[in-house]
Design goal:
The complex is a heterodimer of chains A (about 280) and B (about 180). Chain A is of the alpha+beta class and about 280 residues long. Chain A has five helices and 16 strands. With about 180 residues, chain B is mainly alpha-helical. Chains A and B meet through helix 1, helix 2 and strand 10 of A and helix 2, helix 3, helix 4, helix 5 and helix 6 of B.
Chain lengths: ~280, ~180
């Protein structure tokens, strides 16, 4: 082969020779996922194919005024133009920072910590609860016996002593752990049942997914998995977590779905749909 | 072209979208597999691309352009995934060749092995360009539209990818001859 001067027919033959049948399970997975995924409707004016130039100019001027007012209102009200830089918004333009309290259905920006560059835009269902900018609680909150919640995080440390959120692996100042390291550290915890470690893709990013079952009797009031300052702990006895750890440009983004055996299926499905809607920006 | 299915799916008809997936799934899976060279990754990429397609389908202005639009979505998802997997398996262990193998019509097993190794060394966008060019038969201008790159850039990338494949194959052959094993 290496003696051939023209690679084209070789490449064509090589590409033609390979698996060409989609596995049936792809259909099943896609059918299930689109059942939870709303379509995005474009912002187009139907039935108005014609606008004369004058109307276009007026519309453009009006849009410019609106944008200028909106931009002015977004400027810091205290401090000067030379003040400290703010993080660049990378989320969808219609998304709002997650407030505390009961939410209207819509897109919200979650961050592990205030000011974090990494953002998670989630389409939250009506009536869910925002907490701390990083946590979505379900309609029955996230506590036992039937709550549900979603938490986001990135580059976490796994707590080695579940009752001490400052004792973690690797130690402070060390390089962030890899996804495999995180899975190994979680799996080594004797207080957790870890299962279902699998390759996954979330928001277009590849990584691993695993399930954690907390004990019926928690070792302490806050039984941690991830260390502070981005800590996360069981929200109640027998809490179940589904954890996504995905590689976002070398950082590990973490999304956790927390629920219980008695969580209503509809709430769980709503949480899964919200997670399927996530868009992550590093 | 299943325009009725596409338009129904644009209006939110999930059954129509699944029918679309059935009609095009084999081809799309083959594209993903050619770029990623792994069945599992190809499945993941295809699933993600199809869910994105479902989400964004209402924004497709011309239903007749569904196929190139879908190819663009899938290619971009594959490029992103290939980039991540490439970092993860950067030190891929390559098994030694056994020397001459039984030839088939055009490519022997050793040929395919060489091509596979060379292809995996390309950057993800070059892999995608070769698949679009030689598997799907797109012209450079069409590839440029799919990837959102200038046509000149695409031509240059095709040339570079071909040269890189050739160089990798030659280097691979030399390493087999000199060392008895590949890296």
């Amino acid at each position: 082969m290496t003696a051939r001067s023209d690679l084209d027919p070789t490449l064509k033959a090589w590409f033609d020779d390979g698996p060409s049948t989609m596995p049936d399970r792809v259909i099943d997975v896609v059918a299930a996922r689109i059942g939870r995924q709303r379509q995005r409707r474009p912002w187009r004016l139907h039935g108005r194919p014609f606008m004369n130039t004058q109307i276009k100019l007026i519309a453009a001027a009006a849009a410019a005024v609106v944008l200028a007012i909106a931009g002015w209102n977004l400027l810091p009200k205290t401090g000067s133009f030379g003040g400290p830089p703010t993080s660049t918004p990378t989320a969808a333009p219609t998304a709002k920072p997650l407030p505390d309290g009961t939410l209207r259905a819509g897109d919200y920006i979650l961050r592990a910590l205030p000011g974090d560059p990494m953002t998670f835009v989630v389409t939250a269902p009506e009536g869910w609860q925002g907490l701390g900018g990083f946590f979505l609680g379900g309609p029955r909150a996230s506590g036992a016996p039937d709550g549900v919640g979603i938490s986001v995080n990135h580059d976490p440390e796994v707590v080695s002593n579940p009752c001490d959120a400052s004792a973690h692996t690797p130690g402070p100042g060390a390089s962030p752990p890899s996804i495999d390291d995180l899975v190994a550290a979680i799996s080594s915890r004797a207080d957790l049942q870890v299962s279902g470690v699998t390759e996954t893709v979330l928001a277009g990013y590849a990584g691993k997914r695993l399930d954690i079952q907390f004990p019926v009797t928690l070792a302490c009031s806050n039984q941690y998995v991830f260390a502070e300052p981005k800590g996360l702990y069981a929200n109640g006895p027998a809490n179940r977590w589904r954890v996504w750890l995905v590689d976002v440009g070398g950082q590990t983004a973490v999304v956790v779905l927390l629920d219980y055996a008695a969580t209503p299926a509809a709430d769980r499905a709503a949480a899964e749909a919200a997670i399927a809607s996530i868009r992550i920006s590093p | 072209m299943d325009l009725d299915l596409i338009e129904a799916a644009q209006r939110g008809d999930q059954v129509a979208f699944v029918d679309l997936v059935r009609s095009r799934g084999d081809r799309l899976f083959a594209i993903a597999h050619r770029i990623l060279r792994d069945v599992g990754w190809a499945e993941d990429a295809l699933q993600d691309a199809l869910v994105i397609a479902w989400r964004d389908l209402p924004s497709l202005r011309d239903p007749a352009r569904f196929d190139p639009w879908m190819h663009r979505l899938l290619t971009n998802v594959c490029i992103a995934q290939a980039g991540r997997e490439r970092r993860r398996v950067a030190n891929l262990r390559v098994l030694p060749l056994d020397g001459a193998t039984a030839p088939d019509d055009l490519l022997s097993v050793a040929d395919r092995d060489q091509l596979d190794r060379a292809f995996r060394r390309l950057v993800p966008e070059e892999r995608a360009i070769l698949v679009l060019r030689y598997y799907l038969g797109y012209e450079p201008t069409e590839i440029a539209e799919i990837l959102g790159r200038p046509a000149g850039t695409v031509r240059s990338r095709i040339h570079h990818a071909n040269r890189a494949m050739r160089a990798a194959i030659d280097a691979d052959a030399r390493s087999v001859v000199v060392g008895g094993t590949a890296r």
